[in-house]
Write a structure and sequence with these properties.
It is a single chain. The chain has 739 residues and is mainly beta. It folds into 6 domains: 148 residues, Glucose Permease (Domain IIA); 163 residues, no CATH class; 72 residues, Immunoglobulin-like (Sandwich), CATH 2.60.40; 81 residues, Immunoglobulins (Immunoglobulin-like), CATH 2.60.40.10; 122 residues, Sandwich (Chondroitinase Ac, Chain A, domain 3), CATH 2.60.220.30; 93 residues, Immunoglobulin-like, CATH 2.60.40. Helix content is 3%, strand content 47%. The chain contains 3 helices and 61 strands. The strands form 11 sheets. Strands 16, 17, 18, 19, 20, 21, 22, 23, 24, 25, 26 and 27 form a 12-stranded mixed beta sheet that branches. Strands 3, 6, 7, 8, 9, 10, 11, 12, 13, 14 and 15 form an 11-stranded antiparallel beta sheet that branches. A 7-stranded antiparallel beta sheet has the order 35-36-39-38-37-40-41, with no helix packed on it. It is globular, with a radius of gyration of 31 Å.
């Protein structure tokens, strides 16, 4: 086979010559997703072709070959057909509504033979040959879908997914990718961004359709990784898509390159070495790493020479160029200007006298001061005041009037880099309630404690952690008007910590937050079992669940009650929540004091949807525990659900009368709005006492069994039973008449 090679920013790529494939569905070249996009815990390994909310579009063989495999399931890919092509690649068509009549007959026979709906059947190459353009099935909405579409893949002879756009399967696209923002990520304890040790996101300015810049000069120190938030738009398409490639140069040195042309199935667990997990969890959106992280070099689409960040040494400027490209070759360039050094600092004093404030800088030269007035609350507006320069770096602001009772002060040096702002409150006899919200953000490189005040205190605050009965004190730095943050805390700082609190320094210290912690340090190379919260929670996992030593902890928390059901145990907050798990962790929750164990399940609370979601749960044999597996830190609870599934639209209905020629199938809807219905395993259908193998469409929530023959005239019995995932049961039983 002929091979073609080219060099892409130091990235040697090898692909087969483009094949002259047909478009796989007669629904137009409209897409909803492309190859390489992120899905929960995995990569998207094909393209999704839009079918505009409809089913039944004709699917055709893209090249000569033979049908080599048939799968049916109520989950995953649903009804799926595999065609091995004459070039030894395999075309995969998923979520079909139905196959051709010939294949449907085969599938029905296989269902009866295996006695179940879920099948995966391989076919001899001589049985079902196809020619290019032959009809092979019809698009649908079966399996795990959020709406009708065709999921289409091309797999190479090793059965690994490759980008379909390497062939003639492409769409018209004249739009370059859109780049929204750039993130800087500390990669060790000595790294800092703008004077702080926490990752930061900066917006970009658009100069043209293909050029963006970072307007501000950023001060970086230490080993830093860059990440970019970008997406693609296509001509005459209505969705945002993933990009095809990205690369980074710093001072004309190659740092990183990736290009989504091939993805191996075993790459799923490494998704978040290449895409940023914590930024997505914090609500910033999806970011692509521009540095090699953990095991990402082993991914086939990442250049093996990519570097693990860049060490920004002090005292010099750095130019960075980021190129982002889509599948059609449209390219966007991002330029940034970075300075390696500590952020500038200026000494100044602030003195209030009635409605006047005097700000006196030291002997600092070559700077420009900035002053803003604001209020003590998050929603307070911000404005520039009139001020007077009195000489000798002394400035006066007059006519200070509430609600503008907080002054923000910072300065910029000759390079335009800002110092860290400071905030100062006018003397006030009114005492505001001191409260707020906390976050214990644990990243790959360490943990940062953040406390967000409800109102500006103007006081110095400290974090105190109790370790083996001894209090350890950590100063909190004011990052913005209301945000107080700690320095970077390595995992070892949390060893044996059982209580944390925040207090303000004053003649009488004011405690404003405290919380019990129950946790342990988990090393990456060992298995673990943690009994936490006086054995209320048990967590266990295998080696390499995490890449680094991690502080795993649990605390009581608050969460909204479920719309249905009742919380029996919890809710509990399990952390870390900003570090991805490489492997599942087993979660056991004690039921020792729970009298009835019926209709219980473990649920997690989604902050995005503000809903409780069921996790596959089971009682632990011989123990008073209920168990599940988890792949992220969340809020969890044991919830009892008492509402049974609803069965509706039954055909044939009990006591109904039907003509034999009109009755072609048994069908009904089964819905459960909380724990849900599994489908194949939770539903039973019997006709005349014989259990049948039916199809369950999870998107339509519909059960359907095609009758293989016309029912004889007379009375027939029907039994339908549906259970939800925690065992609540509904059933309909009776007879119907066939004429």
């Amino acid at each position: 086979m002929i091979k073609i090679f080219w060099l892409f920013t130091g990235f040697l790529v090898c692909i087969s010559p483009a094949q002259d494939y047909l478009w796989p569905v007669k629904a137009g070249r409209y897409l909803t997703a492309v190859f390489g996009e992120e899905r929960p815990g995995r990569y998207h390994t094909g393209i999704d072709v839009r079918t505009f909310g409809n089913i039944g579009y004709e699917l055709v063989a893209i090249e000569d070959g033979y049908i080599s495999r048939i799968r049916t399931s109520s989950k995953g890919y649903g009804k799926t057909i595999y065609i091995t092509l004459i070039d030894d690649n395999t075309a995969v068509y998923a979520h079909l509504d139905h196959f051709t009549p010939e294949i449907d007959n085969l599938v029905n026979a296989l269902h009866e033979y295996y006695g179940k709906y879920t099948i995966d059947h391989k076919i001899d190459s001589r049985e079902y040959p196809v020619k290019k353009g032959d009809l092979v099935g019809y698009s649908g909405d079966t399996g795990g879908v959020s709406g009708p579409h065709l999921h289409f893949e091309i797999r190479n002879p090793d059965e690994q997914p490759i980008n379909p756009f390497q062939s003639s399967l492409n769409v018209n696209d004249n739009h370059p990718p859109i780049v929204q923002s750039i993130a800087f990520i500390p990669l060790d304890a000595n790294a800092a961004i703008g004077g702080f040790t926490e990752q930061r996101v900066y917006p970009l300015k658009k100069l043209s359709e293909t050029e963006y810049v970072l307007e501000d000069t950023i001060y970086l120190a230490g080993n830093i990784g860059l990440a970019v938030q970008a997406y693609d738009r296509m001509t005459e398409q209505f969705f945002n898509f993933g990009i095809h490639s990205a690369n980074l140069l710093v001072d004309a040195q190659f740092i990183y390159s990736m290009q989504y042309d091939e993805i191996n199935w075993e790459n799923a667990s490494k998704l978040y070495t290449e895409k940023n997990y914590s930024l997505a969890r914090l609500g910033y959106g999806k970011f692509y790493h521009l540095f090699s992280h953990h095991e990402s070099k082993s991914l086939p689409f990442i250049n093996s020479k990519s570097r693990e960040g860049f060490n920004f040494k002090r005292g010099g400027p750095h130019d960075t160029i980021i190129n982002v490209q889509d599948y059609a070759g449209n390219k966007t360039e991002v330029k940034t200007y970075i300075y390696s050094d500590q952020i500038p600092e200026y000494d100044y004093s602030v003195k209030f006298e009635k409605n006047r404030c005097t700000i006196s800088f030291g002997n600092a030269q070559d700077f420009v001061p900035y002053f803003y007035l604001t209020g003590k609350f998050a929603e307070s507006t911000r404005k520039s005041p009139d001020y007077y320069e009195m000489g000798n770096n002394v400035y006066i602001i007059d006519n200070l009037i509430k609600p503008y009772d907080v002054i923000e002060i910072y300065a910029k040096d000759s390079k335009g880099v800002s110092s860290i702002p400071s905030f100062h409150a006018m003397p006030d006899t009114t005492t505001l309630f001191l409260g707020g919200e906390f976050q214990l953000n644990q990243y790959d490189y360490g943990t940062i404690f953040r406390f967000t005040e409800e109102s500006f205190s103007g006081l110095n605050a400290f974090l105190s952690m109790r370790r083996e009965g001894v209090q350890h004190k950590y100063p909190l730095q004011r990052k913005s008007k209301l945000d107080l943050v700690s320095a970077l805390l390595p995992a070892r700082e949390f060893l044996n910590v059982d209580h944390i609190k925040v207090y303000y320094e004053s003649p009488t210290p004011i405690e404003i937050f405290q919380m019990d912690l129950s946790g342990a340090i988990v090393s990456p190379d060992t298995s673990f079992t943690l009994n936490l919260m006086d054995d209320e929670i048990r967590l266990s996992g295998n080696p390499h669940t995490f890449y680094d030593s991690v502080h795993v902890w649990v605390s009581d928390t608050q969460a909204p009650p479920p719309d249905e059901g009742k919380i029996i145990k919890g809710p509990y907050l399990i952390e870390p929540g900003l570090i991805p798990y490489n492997k599942e962790i087993k979660l056991d929750i004690s039921l020792e004091k729970v009298v009835s164990k019926e209709n219980l399940g473990i649920y997690y609370f989604s902050k995005k949807t503000e809903k409780w979601n069921y996790l596959t749960s089971q009682l632990v044999d011989g123990e008073d525990y209920i168990s599940t597996t988890i792949l992220s830190g969340e809020m969890f609870a044991v919830i009892r659900e008492s509402t049974a599934p609803v069965i509706s639209n039954l055909i044939p209905d009990v006591n109904g009368t039907y003509f034999s020629k009109d009755l072609e199938h048994i069908s009904f809807k089964v819905e459960d709005s909380f724990s849900g219905v599994e489908g194949e395993t939770d539903v039973i259908v019997k006709i005349d006492g014989r259990e049948v193998v039916f199809e369950y469409n999870s998107y339509q929530k519909k059960v359907r069994y095609p009758l293989k023959y016309n029912l004889k005239k007379g009375t027939h019995s029907l039994y339908v039973q549906a259970a939800d995932k925690v065992g609540n049961l509904s059933k309909i039983e009776g007879e119907f008449l066939v004429k």
